[in-house]
UniProtKB/TrEMBL annotation:
The lineage of its organism: Bacteria, Bacillati, Cyanobacteriota, Cyanophyceae, Oscillatoriophycideae. The chain holds residues 553 to 829 of 829 of the full protein. It comes from the Bacteria. Residues 24-276 form the EAL domain. This is Response regulator receiver modulated diguanylate cyclase/phosphodiesterase with PAS/PAC sensor(S).
Length: 277
């Protein structure tokens, strides 16, 4: 059941589809059609070094463009796909698409692409091997992938995530703790796991520059991160005032509409080329 060929080639056999609980809803039916009709797109949102203005990475975000339903954002379908396990099917497509793009972008050697993986993925014992196989098949010279793990996923999946970190040494993938400071934050998560990046939740970022308590919180997050050699990205920067405030706090990287919306692969490369010239 794999699709024609080329960049969107998709392999269903990787997962036991019998374990996927397929009901009757239209969203589910639409979803399986959408995969074979190429309705999913990946957009890339640049992450900027706040001090040099250079692009350091981009976050890959998924979009669903359906001709009847219109443009659908991940928050509308990811929770549903997480419930029935279909998320693994989508994430397989996402990984293949991103690794394809990375192959095209090999000349931008330092460009790191980060991806959001669902909680489901961390329980998938074959996750690391799967990524290894995909990058091997594409003959990527180096694997410039960073996996974002939402902080709320960490607590319940420590055992699994531990084993992923053990596995990953052979493949050079980086990890980012996402949504840091959104919920129950524990500094110990930062020292227990080898995260290279953390992303400060946009609720904290968007309360700047006025909220001085949140300013102190961000400042102490950055202080801890610096001790542990972790790079801090502030998410959801929308204004110059927020950026100035983050710069004063010593935040390393930033992401948000102030710099750029998420862009198609083509527009992203245009943006990247302009930014490096
Ligand atoms: P996230 O990882 O927190 O991603 C950042 C979200 O903030 C994105 O929403 C992005 O478009 C949005 N954003 C970026 N800059 C700004 C800004 O300046 N202001 C505001 N208000 N928002 C901004 P998006 O693309 O709708 O994604 C929502 C969430 O869906 C993501 O949150 C992520 O958790 C999940 N998601 C997206 N793509 C994937 C995927 O491929 N796999 C999985 N498992 N989850 C995904
Ligand atoms: Mg959104
Ligand atoms: Mg993210």
């Amino acid at each position: 059941q794999s699709k024609k060929n080329g960049r969107d080639q998709f392999q269903f056999y990787q997962y036991d589809m019998n374990k996927v609980d397929i009901g009757k809803s239209t969203l589910e039916k639409n979803f399986l059609n959408a995969i074979s009709n190429d309705e999913f797109k990946i957009v890339y949102q640049p992450v900027i070094d706040i001090f040099t203005g250079k692009i350091v990475s981009a976050e890959a975000l998924v979009r669903w463009e359906n001709k009847d339903l219109g443009l659908i954002y991940p928050e509308k379908f990811i929770p549903f796909l997480e419930k029935n396990g279909l998320i693994l099917v989508l994430e397989q497509w996402i990984l293949e698409t991103i690794i394809n793009d990375l192959k095209f972008w090999e000349r931008y050697e330092d460009l790191l692409i980060s991806i959001n993986l669902s909680e489901y993925q961390f329980k998938n014992a074959k996750m690391v091997k799967n990524i290894k196989d995909l990058t091997g098949k594409k003959q990527l010279r180096q694997c410039n992938l960073c996996i974002e793990i939402k902080e709320e996923y960490l607590e319940e999946n420590k055992k699994f995530i531990d084993s992923i970190f053990n596995d990953i040494n052979s493949i050079n993938i980086e990890f980012c703790l996402d949504n840091f400071g959104a919920g129950l934050t524990s500094i110990s998560n930062l020292s227990k796991f080898p995260f290279k990046h953390l992303k400060i939740d946009q609720s904290l970022v968007q309360s700047l520059p006025r909220n001085s308590q949140n300013k102190n919180i961000i400042e102490s997050i950055i202080a801890v991160a610096n001790i542990l050699n972790i790079k801090v990205t502030a998410k959801g920067i929308e204004s110059k005032a927020q950026l100035d405030s983050l710069r004063a706090l010593g935040c390393h990287y930033g992401q948000g509409y102030f710099f750029s919306q998420p862009l198609s692969a083509l527009n992203f490369i245009t943006y990247l080329t302009k930014n490096t010239n």
